[in-house]
Every structure is written in structure tokens, then in C-alpha cells.
Amino acid sequence: ALKVQLGQRAAAVSLLDETLDDVLPESWIARTIWKQIQGSFLDTDDTDGFVTFCRHRLRRRTDDLDARLHLAEALSLAGRRDQSIREFERAVELAPSRRDVREQFIHQLVIADEVPRAIEQCEFIVKEHPEDAEALARLGELQLRQGRASLPVVKEAINTWRRITGLKTDSPLPALNVAELCRRAIPTFSPA
Fold first, then answer.
1. Which residues, in sequence order, are CB contacts of 83 under 8 Å at separation 6+?
2. Residue 130 and residue 120: Cα distance in Å, rounded?
3. What average pLDDT does range 33-39 have in this prediction?
């Protein structure tokens, strides 16, 4: 951080990059290093420089999931959504069981208005986590968004949300959440 403040970003990033090689990828230290590297580029609006850094790192370490995710995010920031989506696809291939990676991918697909693909990813999460009320709620919202509120789509979303009420819990909260989701869906549907 001090080298960045002194205007020695290249040296700082190189040192941080080397340090990143020596820590566990999912550790808090790795996350901190990535924040410092990313900040050194984005604080000066050098998104392209950050993209270049991530690509360089991926040439050396093709299986670096964090570099892949940072690259995908940076590409999205740079307005290169198609490239960003390709990188998210590669990240999902690297870590198919990582829910957080799929959720980031879903977010990017929604931004790119590729809702059917976002639904596919969300359905995968629901399949892996059938008792997860948040995943079911998100799936219903995506279904509703995709269908532009036609009656069959509203029914599909509501049926997805009904699955939440069947989850085993002593709390009334899931039922209240379903009621709220349905209430919010009503204004989006207006029969012809």
C-alpha cells in the first residue's frame, strides 16, 4: 500500500502478486491482497490495467478462480459484457459447486438481460439446495422477469414460491415472504 501511495504501483502490484502466490486462495489474506491490487488500479480508473493484470495472472495460473472472477468483474465494469459472461462461464467450470460463483454469474446474466440463462443457473442452485428459501424466491423472481408477466409465467413463479411454504420450519417468516413476493408480482401482471 505504501508503494502505491509513493507512486510505485507497478512495484507494489508485482510484490502483491508474488505474495498472492504464497497464500491460500480462499484465505482472508488473499482477499485482502486482491482488494489492494484491485484498488491500486480502480482508484485511478485504470480498469483496462486491472484487466491486463488479471489476464497476465491467468496465463501463469489458468486455474486461479479469484483471478478469473476479478477479470469477469473488471470486464463488466469496462462495459465488455460478452467477455465478462465468458469469464464467468469459465469460473463456473472451474468451481461448479461454488454457489457464490453461480450467484455472481446470475447477477451478470441479469444485467446483460440474459434471463433464460440466469434461470438455468438458478435452477441448478435450487436443485443443489432444494430447502433454500432464498434460492426459490430468486428463481420465482427470475421466472416472472423472463415472462414479462404473462399469466402462465405468473403461475409458474407462484408455484415456485409455494415450494417455500412447504419447507420445514417453525417460523412464519417463509409464508410471509411468499405473500410479499406474490403481492409484488400482482402489479406486474395485467390481463389483456
1. 75
2. 15
3. 91
